[in-house]
Write a structure and sequence with these properties.
Elements (H helix, E strand, L loop, with lengths): L1 H16 L2 H11 L3 H28 L4 H19 L6 H29 L2 H16 L1
Length: 138
């Protein structure tokens, strides 16, 4: 069951960042104003925090999840970074910062998901997914 939760969390993480390539151009366009940049950074932070909650369900469900715990910690650092944003940055700098954080979060999510797939059965992953979805809603 722990493995399932882990895989579900991983699937949710990937789904959240799955269409990142297409969305990045729209994200950058929204950053042309200070308010738009701040809103996109908050949305990114929120998405990362949701992935952390889902991933934590998976980590808590398993044993020997050191690698996944490390990924969760790195995602937390990214969420903090997104919440702070570069002070006094131009919209181009904010956009570059946003893209860098988003790309790294996507890469970490993929890495987390691969670890889940290798560790848990499909049935376990289904159970983990349910629990991870519930964690995201809280």
């Amino acid at each position: 069951m722990k493995k399932i939760l882990f895989v579900i969390g991983l699937v949710l993480l990937i789904a959240a960042f799955g269409s990142a390539e297409n969305e990045t151009d729209e994200d950058v366009q929204a950053m042309n104003t200070p308010f738009g940049a701040q809103a996109r950074m908050i949305q990114l932070q929120s998405a990362i925090l949701g992935n952390i909650a889902a991933g934590q369900v998976v980590v808590d469900a398993g044993e020997d999840n050191g690698d996944q715990q490390e990924i969760i910690a790195r995602l937390q650092d990214l969420a903090d970074e997104a919440g702070e944003g570069p002070v006094g940055a131009t919209h181009e700098e904010m956009a570059a910062h946003f893209i860098a954080i988003k790309k790294e979060a996507i890469d970490l999510t993929k890495e987390f998901r691969e670890g889940v797939k290798n560790r848990y059965s499909n049935e376990e992953i289904k159970e983990l997914r349910k629990d991870a979805n519930n964690a995201r809603k809280m």
